[in-house]
Specification:
Blueprint (H helix, E strand, L loop, with lengths): L1 E5 L2 E7 L4 H12 L4 E18 L4 E23 L2 E14 L2 E24 L6 E5 L4 E5 L2
Antiparallel strand pairs: 1-2, 2-6, 3-4, 3-6, 4-5, 5-6, 7-8
């Protein structure tokens, strides 16, 4: 990974074999960023996508492997009692035989095949927190 700060934004290049979310969180820890938004594109080799199943209160996971075009990754970083937390979604395109396919969802992890280019926009003038909601079994933004 390499990155540059330009004005208030960070521009991140995530390299082959690196995991995108891990590198974004690493940068946030190094730079003292507690809340941010990010988006990006790239070429990936593996992705763990999840779909939340409300009735079960858990996620169903699908693993994609091969040449995956990262059409878009978008997410946020917030701070809670356990530290930094990410909420990320992504869309991928890929070939399955002769067919072009797409898959999308909540992201657990994304491994880079050749590069990913991410723009990170820290929250200015405050911190967005996260609070657990027992009714849904997931977390939501907290502004307190």
């Amino acid at each position: 990974m390499d990155y540059r700060r330009i004005n208030d934004f960070f521009y991140i290049r995530v390299d082959k074999g690196e995991e995108i979310i891990e590198k974004i969180l690493e940068l946030c820890r190094a730079e003292g960023i507690r809340s941010a938004f990010f988006s990006g594109i790239g070429g990936c080799s593996r992705a763990e996508l999840q779909t939340f199943i409300p009735e079960e209160g858990s996620f169903e996971t699908e693993v994609l492997e091969g040449m995956l075009e990262l059409i878009n990754v978008t997410g946020n970083i917030v701070f809670d009692d356990e530290g930094l937390f990410h909420h990320t979604h992504a869309v991928f395109s890929y070939k399955d035989g002769l067919e072009h396919k797409m898959s999308a969802g909540h992201i657990k992890s994304i491994t880079v095949l050749y590069t990913a280019e991410i723009e990170l926009r820290p929250v200015i003038g405050g911190v967005i927190g996260r609070k657990y909601d027992p009714e849904t079994g997931t977390g939501f933004w907290s502004f307190s």
